[in-house]
Design a protein that fits this description.
By secondary structure, the chain is an alpha/beta fold. It is built from 14 helices and 15 strands.
């Protein structure tokens, strides 16, 4: 058994000062210590997959980040581990608790995952070892993880058994900050009267944002491909997997790089898939986080199947989740107002209804995803 401080001190010496994840009773002393230490950053995610994506965004922004999760939540994290971290070659250190270990009298829902955690990591190509069980082993364990991530640009996992870390209490139990009760919600009088195409919106964003201090992050499918087709720029990142994770990836980037404005552009299908992250963004994001949902009420990239967004007001949802300013409409005037909004307290949301229309013969990026992300990192002055 070790003290949380012993591990975190060594991790900090290697540059790991940011943490994200979802709590587990095995992790309680570890998470409590991180929250208590004002020099460290902790982002509590709505689910484990979003925690992985947020850590990936922080890595892109130049902050080494550790994700903490329960092995039951490893299932939620499979997609972003395999189609985000693997695809973009982003090294993230993951601490996974081993619930359901055969010799433990654990809850029945952990039984199967306790048997297959190591096999799942092996199948995903994630190198792993057990979390250090003594102070003398911490440096060596972290050195192995750090060297692997540096050489391969792949994630590494430490599997934590019950009782690995001594108890640690929260120094102060407090409720999360609540945004201004007077948050603004703007809806056009006829919000769906004049529908634009996705191409119209993306072109406007490219023409009316600064290349030097604005990053355009487009979600997977036609969104990223159309942004690329209009103009391939070094300040753009095209998600090619991890549907729904653009908002959490953008959160990590925005937190790591407050000097950059991050504009996340996703469709209604992607936003619906991981809507819980809107609450996380509302709590943690700053004024450099701009969230744009282009809603054509269909899964356009996969044949036009309907989503359920016709009955959803993402702007009102974001307002309820703590975004200080939210817009809903369909014409370029409301997009202009959104970009020029001068609120200074937190993230903002724009929910735009658009036409279900796509560029003919839409190309795919010629560059590999890891090349696109390395180009972006070079553009903003970060490296792995």
């Amino acid at each position: 058994m070790i003290e949380a401080e012993d591990f975190i001190t060594v991790a900090s010496s290697l540059g790991f000062n940011s943490y994200t994840g979802v709590p587990c009773s095995f992790l309680t002393p570890f998470i409590n210590y991180v929250i208590n230490d004002k020099k460290l950053n902790y982002i509590g995610s709505a689910n484990e997959g979003d925690a992985i994506a947020t850590a990936a965004g922080m890595t892109i922004g130049g902050q080494k980040t550790i994700v903490m999760l329960q092995n039951s939540g490893l299932g939620n994290a499979v997609n972003p581990i395999t189609s985000l971290l693997h695809t973009f070659k982003l090294p993230v250190l993951i601490i996974i608790t081993l619930r359901g270990e055969p010799q433990l009298n654990d809850e029945p829902q952990h039984e199967l995952m306790g048997k297959i955690t190591e096999k799942m990591l092996d199948l995903m190509g994630v190198a792993w070892s057990f979390f250090p069980d003594s102070k003398d082993n911490i440096q060596a364990a972290l050195n192995v993880a750090y060297e692997h991530m540096s050489l391969t640009h792949k994630p590494y996992a430490l599997i934590m058994k019950k009782g690995s870390v001594k108890s640690e209490s929260l120094s102060e139990v407090k409720s999360p900050d609540v945004r201004d009760e007077n948050s603004k919600y703007y809806a056009a009088e006829t919000p769906c009267k004049k529908l634009q195409t996705r191409q119209d919106i993306l072109s406007y964003l490219q023409s009316n944002t600064n290349l030097e201090n604005v990053i355009l992050l487009a979600s997977t499918g036609f969104m990223g491909r159309e942004l690329y087709a209009l103009d391939d720029r070094p300040n753009q990142l095209y998600m090619v997997g991890s549907m729904g994770c653009a908002s959490s990836l953008g959160l990590g980037m925005a937190l790591a790089r407050p000097d950059q404005t991050i504009i996340i552009i996703e469709g209604d299908g992607a936003a619906l898939m991981r809507m819980g992250n809107i609450a996380t963004v509302g709590q943690y994001a700053g004024k450099n986080y701009l969230h744009v949902i282009l809603d054509n009420e269909i899964h356009d990239s996969t044949g036009g199947q309907s989503t359920v967004s016709a009955g959803v007001d993402f702007a009102l949802i974001s307002k309820a989740c703590g975004y200080p300013v939210s817009y809903f409409g369909s014409d370029l005037d409301i997009l202009k107002s959104f970009l020029n909004e001068n609120q200074l307290t937190g993230p903002r949301m724009l929910h735009m209804k658009i036409k279900p229309d796509t560029i003919n013969d839409l190309p795919r990026p010629k560059e590999l995803p890891q090349q696109v992300v390395r180009r972006l990192m070079k553009h903003i002055g970060t490296s792995l």
